[in-house]
Design a protein that fits this description.
The chain contains 16 helices and no strands. The protein has 419 residues and is mainly alpha-helical. Helix 5 runs parallel beside helix 8, helix 9 packs antiparallel against helix 10 and helix 11 runs antiparallel to helix 12.
């Protein structure tokens, strides 16, 4: 390989570092931090009233774009092991192990946060016992009655959970297509087939969203919060996973990607992402009300631009030599990495923290200074999230790792056993 090819190829799999899990990719904790802070921006902007009274509100209202970044991150990180197996012509991760790890990663802290939310806000926040159960099992997005009860921002977590369940099915289907070809295994053919399927998924998702928004009598008013309406963003992350894995395994860099190895290309990616953000904030006619849908064309334009923002935000972390260039060094910095480590807690706790701050200070709802409220909320929520990470998240992750280790040991002793 040329020097440029080596730089591009050293992305995902070269990101293994001592003391980190095998699937660790430098920069992705930093990306999680950015996504979480963007979500805090949109909610503090609305709660303080800043979004509705300031000309900058068109930007703070678009902080919801952080959700799209989370979806791309999930698409990339979770599909990587399946893509690596497909490229190598072997079976992918065991589904039961994958699902157990996912459940232990997200459910314990979510249930703790839901119970605490109930203790602070009462049954009204979860719509009674039945609403509490709907929320506890990630079903609120399928009912108009409960969709924004409980932890209101958890509608996107419901989509994530559905994606977790759908991903092994997608991977199995793609593997079945590969085996039907009856030809010598060809990573380039796998790449083409995967990218074509993901392109179809991307278009189908946009068409579903267009149908839901354009039809006044669509399937339900909550359908925009279902996985099919957001699969385009997961597809973009999965496409990055497939391409990055192909480059890492074969050393062959598609011509369209070789520019990423050039000095300053990482910064250029973020300039393009910033341009996408500016477009969606100012040029497509979106309301500053984050809950406003708008017309079908406006909504689909938002979806496309949100996806492109996330795509170019992730690109330097997926390709290129880790910790080289301004962007990669920033993403791998201790501050962003530390915030990213507790980003799940930030996402779950921040609305409750903002609510309590406004209830016990002079910062009233729709009448509070944005920057002081935002800074205070970030400090408090990081502290709360760090505590919940140490006492809830990390133990759950450790249980998942121990379960996986025992499953591998059992398989080594009894090869016919398949967990």
């Amino acid at each position: 390989m040329t020097a440029a090819q080596t730089a591009v190829a050293s992305g995902p799999d070269a990101g293994q570092t001592r003391g980190k899990a095998a699937g660790f990719v430098p920069g992705f904790d930093g990306l999680r931090a950015i996504a979480a802070l963007l979500v805090v921006v949109v909610h503090v902007g609305a709660a303080s009233g800043f979004t509705f009274r300031s000309s900058l509100g068109r930007y703070t209202s678009r902080g919801e774009i952080g959700v799209s970044v989370f979806f791309l991150i999930s698409g990339f990180l979770l599909y990587r092991p399946f893509a690596a197996a497909a490229m190598a012509g072997r079976d992918g991760p065991k589904v039961r192990s994958y699902l157990v790890r996912r459940a232990l990663r997200i459910v314990p802290l979510y249930w703790v946060a839901l119970i605490v939310t109930y203790l602070f806000t009462g049954w009204a926040s979860v719509h009674g016992v039945s609403g509490f159960l709907e929320n506890a099992f990630f079903l609120q997005v399928y009912s108009r009655q409960w969709v924004f009860h409980g932890i209101t921002q958890a509608w996107s977590l419901c989509i994530e959970v559905t994606f977790y369940l759908a991903l092994p099915v997608w991977a199995a289907w793609m593997r079945k297509l590969d085996r039907r070809r009856r030809r010598p295994h060809d990573p380039a053919a796998v790449l083409r087939r995967e990218l074509f399927a993901l392109a179809v998924l991307y278009v189908a998702s946009l068409l579903f969203r267009l149908w839901v928004v354009a039809s006044p009598h669509g399937p339900t008013q909550t359908a925009r919060s279902w996985l099919p309406a957001w699969s385009d963003h997961f597809a973009l992350g999965m496409a990055l996973a497939v391409t990055g894995t192909y480059v890492s395994q074969t050393g062959v860099v598609p011509k369209v990607l070789r520019w990423i190895a050039k000095p300053g290309a990482d910064l250029l990616c973020w300039i393009i992402a910033a341009f996408m953000f500016w477009l969606v904030a100012t040029q497509v006619g979106l309301s500053t009300d984050p809950l406003a849908v708008g017309g079908a064309g406006t909504d689909v334009a938002r979806e496309i631009l949100y996806g492109m923002f996330g795509f170019f935000l992730l690109l330097p972390a997926v390709f290129g030599t880790p910790r080289t260039g301004l962007v990669r060094r920033l993403l791998a910095s201790r501050v962003l990495s530390s915030i990213g480590l507790v980003s799940y807690g930030i996402y779950l706790w921040h609305q409750l923290v903002v609510r309590e701050l406004q209830a016990h200070t002079s910062w009233k709802v729709l009448d509070a200074p944005f920057l002081p409220l935002f800074a205070t909320a970030v400090v408090v929520v990081i502290a709360v999230s760090t505590v919940s990470y140490v006492f809830v998240e990390r133990p759950g992750i450790a249980v998942g790792h121990r379960w996986l280790l025992r499953a591998r040991e059992r398989e080594a002793v009894h090869p016919d056993h398949r967990p």
